[in-house]
## 1
Amino acid sequence: MHALLGSLTHFFVHSLELLVSLPPDQLITSLWPFLFLSLPRNLLTQFLVLGVALTPESRRKAIFRQKLAVRRPLVSVLLPGYNERDTLEGTVLSLRDQSYPNLEIIVVSDGSDDGMDRIGHRLAGRGWIRFFNHKVRGGKVSAANFALQAAHGDYIAICDADTTFDRDAIWRLMEEFYRPEVMAVAGNVRVRNAKTNLLTRCQALQYILSIGLGRRVAAWLGILFIVSGAFGAFRRSALEAVGGWDTGPGEDADLTIKLRLAGGQVAFAPAAVCMTDAPDRWWAFFRQQMRWNRSTVRFRLRKYGFLLLPWRRPGGTLNFLAAVDVILFQVVFAVMFPIYLIGLFFTYPALFPYLVCGVSLLYLCTSVVTYFIALALSERPLDDLKLLPYLPLYGLFIGWYLRTVRLLAYLDEFFFRSSFTEPYVPAHVQRETRKFQPW
């Protein structure tokens, strides 16, 4: 073991020494994705996060919080679910324990066949929820839109039926509506089962850095393009004005873009924490990531590709910048990365393993800096600190595995439109959707 560690250390050190010794032109050729794309974006993100953390709270927000404590408008919490018998009661109990006192909880069982209806009727009999049981499955969007029509609140929160929440989560969401132009607020989703195995630990790091940190910056810049379907809140009037949710997968990002195009802004509430179980098996995780990333092509490129046209600028310059950020650093970078590696191999065949190792170490260094900034801002620093030993593996997880899965998903959706056969949405709904959605 000591010999192996010594060999690896020597290989890593030699890789870095090789990078440092390269002439400037070869260094640029070898590192251009890192130097011109990843590094500027990471540095910008890190400085902005520090700036956000040092920004004093708005006086308008403090005044709104005081008014909220007196007025307490009704918040309707929508829980559309399919076969959530084992988790529904825990989610409802977590919502009933919220410090925000004026909630109605609406549960819609979307054609479940696991006995979820029995749990729903029992909870409704206690007066804890309003429950609706759909015999035929119509998909999450169908259940969510039905729940929206049944809701009485001026504010709508939507959650997955297998999530739990910090006690002040709804309060924290509501506080972000202090600006009248804010139509939607994204909650902070974290991994509940991080201790299960290596896969869940890597996902926990991903959620901390991409959601807890990345969305904080995006919201501050005014380019946040996603309110997760796992936990978010909306002004009811805004939801109804854009027609609610459209058929997914990817319906959460689709709705967020519709709200932005209607002139609304999107906020992020880092202290509004929702806990969810991440996939703990590689095949389940692969399928989830394929579904999520297919929707990037389906909606962001096909349906809303016009946002990339700067001369049109629908909804303003910020929507253009937000679209460019997503497409450049997710789609374009994923497509370019294998091309970059192939070019690197044929340009420097003998040095290729060392160059790849050196580049990976550079990405790891930026991840370490980003991690410690996230740790400084975390509401669970002791839990997050336990993930530090897994940070090197996280670099491999994000840099290699996830980037490969994204590329497969993009190619699959681009050529085969597989999102229209995704079992996340029932087949009969997908068939009807495809008739009216050319994208």
## 2
Amino acid sequence: MLDPSSFEVEWTPKGEESSPRERAQHMKKIYTDAEDTEPHNMPLPLGKPVDISIFVDADHAGNKVTRRSHTGIIIYCNLSPVLWYSKQQNTVETSTFGSKFLWHYG
């Protein structure tokens, strides 16, 4: 059983950010031919609709001792958490850009 009520999240801007709805409208102008297609044999939905909400957060070098970042994700189905993940990063980046090199011998 899941709680049938859902989140009422209000977005508050920080600085000159646009709202998620405004960004979605802007993307629709850029990608005019993009569309959501549903399979032709998709069954009709039964029961009440559900909301899936995902919250993600990370801090940059949040641990004062190791200077490592921490990432957290939580997924809700309506108001019930169904999955969460939290991890301290294994490495410390010295800048916001990290790179990986792949070597191929052949």
## 3
Amino acid sequence: MSMASIFAESQHLPHIPKVVQELIESFRDDNIDADKISDKVALDQALTAKVLRLANSAHYGVSRTIANPHDAIMLLGFNTLRTMVLASGVSGAFKPPQGFDQKAFWRDAFTIAALSRFLASYTPDCDKDTAFTCGMLHSIGQLLIRIVMPAETASIDEAEKLGGTRHTLESGQLGFSSAEVGAELAKRWKFPQEMQQAIEQQYNPGLEKPYTQLAGILYLARFLKQAREAQQSDDEIRDTFPRQVAQAIALDSEAALADLAALDSLSSGLDGLLE
């Protein structure tokens, strides 16, 4: 099956609510009407319920109950509301195959999102909300391949358990990678080109291919996640941190690595969507 045939399987393609599509387009519009958007969010009862549950969680620490999307914008800001709605709409758009732990998948995606925002704060001219969204979407191609090509995915899963690198296995067995599929899906959902490029190029630093600033951040975010999962000490992380990648995207690696303790309390604030 070619990559084009994946997107020809329209019955498998995830569909997102119209208001989520409008919020995607808001990344390109500095004059977005936040009140108009919140009105539209309020019309989707399921979406609103998820957003309000998140907004009233301990993570955001608001002093009073947030009762509607307008309150969320006033107390948390438009960017936070946008993140909540995007996360809810995107994570709810996929129908996972039987036996697949979708909660674990999205928990990992939200972790990369939080790490991407952390790294963006040490990177000049890098928007933290854009980096967060890229992190949240970084593995959507893998999920789509899993849904459309379950047999091929099972084979790749087994090879990965034996020590293979997933994106290399995908390219070898399928002729394309999940990063390419994810970038194409982001394009069809009309995410900005810089986000599409970040998803597609997220493995490029390790392959010694050209990559954008956001792609470099995704690469480093995945490094930090894997290091923490391997229970590496802060000193081990500092010793193995891909400083060349950090230098290429102008990330202040010394400042970021001096703040590794912050990773222990890092949270996307989105895990409530998985309950």
## 4
Amino acid sequence: MSGKPVLLVEDSDDDALLLKRTLNKVGLANPVYHVNDVDQALCYLSGEGPFADRNQHPLPSVIFLDLRLPVRGGYELLEWIGTRPEFRTIFIVVLAGTGNIEDIAKANRMGANTFLTKPCKPVTLKIS
């Protein structure tokens, strides 16, 4: 393992793959663990269920968190993390499909460190 892991909380497998490829392209050597929803993220962070072995699933240094998740949204996870002092050092990057200023402000108030807008579709650059 090349460093503390990154936890990606994202329900879209396509968006997760795109982010993983981007992190790989910029040279991030840290392992990336992907969970699909808030319940799985809670299990991971709590070290419960399939994530009970902290050697296999250490606490992340960074969380990429999609705000719009099925059943329970990203705000619920932000609120839960905010009540636990042991997670205060985790850097949280909120991902959303739009750059809605209210979403950004609310996520920041709840402990997010930064906010990224997901691209609507992969962008192809053409150099003439």
